[in-house]
Write a structure and sequence with these properties.
With about 475 residues, this protein is an alpha+beta fold. Among the domains are: about 200 residues, 2-Layer Sandwich (Nucleotidyltransferase, domain 5); about 80 residues, Dna Ligase, domain 1 (2-Layer Sandwich), CATH 3.30.1490. The chain is built from 12 helices and 18 strands. It has a 5-stranded mixed sheet, with helices on both faces. A 5-stranded mixed sheet has the order 14-13-12-17-18, with helices on both faces. The protein has a 4-stranded antiparallel sheet with strand order 7-10-8-9. Helix 1 crosses helix 3, helix 3 packs across helix 12 and helix 4 packs across helix 10. The longest helix is centred in the C-terminal third of the chain and has 41 residues.
């Protein structure tokens, strides 16, 4: 399988595991070649609780995706979420040795490495180091420091932190499924790639991904991620409430929620009733839709209030931090009837349902444009972007090597004849320069790739 042209996203969720295979078509749109789904049995609130069952579910989803796409899958871009994820803000600086040279990827990489080495709480690991604004020699509000001169490079960072054991368990499941981790990313970041526009990220927007076990929140402003959070409950808690409140089994509660559920009790009349078949010849159970909506409403309000608390923690009340584009709801929970209206009522912010359809090719299956698959689509997009970046750097490296060879030839031709016993200084210097330049090009890796490499080495330890 050619990783340059094809990427595989693996979304390990609480209710389902999705493997999605995609590539870019000639118009730059995402063409999904195949998808596999399996019920997620060994994951609770985004955390692996049963290794064996999770491996089985991953293998089932991957096998189904291989058959549907007619591709061999051996590496995946994995999404990570769960109640163990937390975020933090941090500022740090790096003093450059050569201020007479322009700032490049190497300097930014060195600053990010300093942040990666921060001491976290016991059992925690930094997953993402996301630069926000930079400062160069005290000059603030710089979004792109590359190409500038300066000695002291500073930055504000958004850190995403997770539990080492939870990350390693995911790594173990993937490795035991005979797969390689091509890249690993925070799920709300992947979902945001699939459903948010660049204009929304600039204006200020809140992405709310309501999954089965968790609700992921990501806040963007001025095109930069400003805040992330994982709320440790989602759609499954609503189902659990219906099961308890109506004294029915989980399967029936889930069906009731999907078919008749509404987040707005005022929509249902008192006499609207649905009949549920009884167990083993028992009498059917009659359930009032008004009562069902009240149960759903109470839990959804709790979820939205938690989301609104995160928006307040970010500082939405400040003029500079206003979120003009409002809230975008995605994930399976966004299918719930009237959830958009309830969100607007509780938060007082505009909202819409986020569909990943704008990135998909026109002939895509309608099922794929559902908010349920927003994370999987985002993971495929990130995998393809990573492949494009690697290809671009490879071409840059080839171009640089060719230029160095031509330069070396010209210098050799132009150099005077060397007498016996003299050291051909010019020629030796050219060779050294060529080697150094090639080495530096090899070192120029994206922040995303550096992180993946570190995490891959980290996962390989003790596995």
């Amino acid at each position: 399988m050619s990783t340059e042209q094809i990427a595989v996203g693996l979304d390990i969720g609480t209710t389902k595991i999705v493997a999605m295979v995609g590539r870019k078509n000639e118009y730059g749109k995402l063409e999904i070649l195949g998808m596999g789904k399996a019920k997620s049995l060994g994951v609770h609130r985004g955390v692996v609780t049963n290794i064996t069952q999770t491996i089985e579910s991953i293998q089932l989803a991957v096998q189904e995706a291989e058959i549907a796409s007619e591709q061999d899958i051996n590496s995946v871009v994995v999404g990570i979420a769960g109640q163990h994820i937390r975020s933090a803000q941090h500022s740090d600086y790096y003093v450059r040795e050569h201020p007479d040279e322009v700032i490049d990827d190497k300097d930014i990489g060195a600053l990010i490495d300093i942040v990666h080495n921060l001491v976290m709480m016991p059992g925690e690991e930094i997953i993402h180091v996301l630069p926000q604004e930079f400062k160069v020699d005290g000059q603030a509000e710089i979004h792109e420091p590359r190409g500038m001169y300066g000695r002291r490079l500073e930055a504000n960072f958004h850190l995403v932190v997770g539990q080492i054991s939870s990350i390693k368990n995911i790594g173990r499941c993937i490795k035991s499924s005979d797969l390689q981790v091509d890249a690993i990313t925070l799920e709300p970041l992947a979902s945001s790639d699939a459903v948010l526009s660049q204009e929304e990220k600039e204006a200020g927007v809140v992405l709310v991904d309501i999954g089965g076990g968790t609700t992921d929140v990501a806040i963007f402003k001025d095109g930069i991620i400003r805040h992330t959070a994982v709320i440790p409950f989602g759609g499954n808690v609503i189902t659990e409430d219906i099961k308890e409140g109506c004294s029915i089994i989980e399967k029936q509660a889930e069906l009731l929620k999907i078919k008749f559920g509404s987040a707005w009790p005022g929509e249902n009349k008192e006499n609207e009733i649905v009949s549920i078949p009884g167990l083993r010849g028992r009498e059917p159970k009659e359930i009032s839709l008004k009562n069902l909506s009240r149960i759903i409403h109470a839990r959804v309000v709790e979820i939205i209030e938690q989301v609104y608390l995160e928006i307040k923690n970010y500082g939405h009340d400040e003029n500079k931090k206003k979120l003009i584009a409002g809230i975008v709801l995605t994930g399976g929970g966004s299918h719930l009837k009237h959830i958009k209206q309830l969100t607007e009522y509780v938060t007082g912010m505009d909202s819409r349902i986020g569909y990943p359809s704008e990135h998909l090719a026109n002939d895509s299956n309608e099922e794929l444009s559902s908010p349920i698959f927003a994370t999987a689509v985002g993971l495929v997009l990130q995998g393809l972007a990573k492949g494009d970046e690697a290809q671009r750097r490879e071409q840059e490296l080839k171009g640089s090597e060719t230029a160095q060879m031509l330069s070396a030839e010209q210098k050799t031709e132009a150099s005077p004849t060397v007498e016996a016993g003299d050291q051909p200084q010019g020629e030796v210097k050219t060779e050294i320069e060529s080697e150094t330049s090639t080495e530096e090009n090899k070192k120029r890796k994206s922040v995303f790739e550096n992180f993946t490499e570190k995490l891959r080495n980290f996962l390989n330890d003790d596995i």
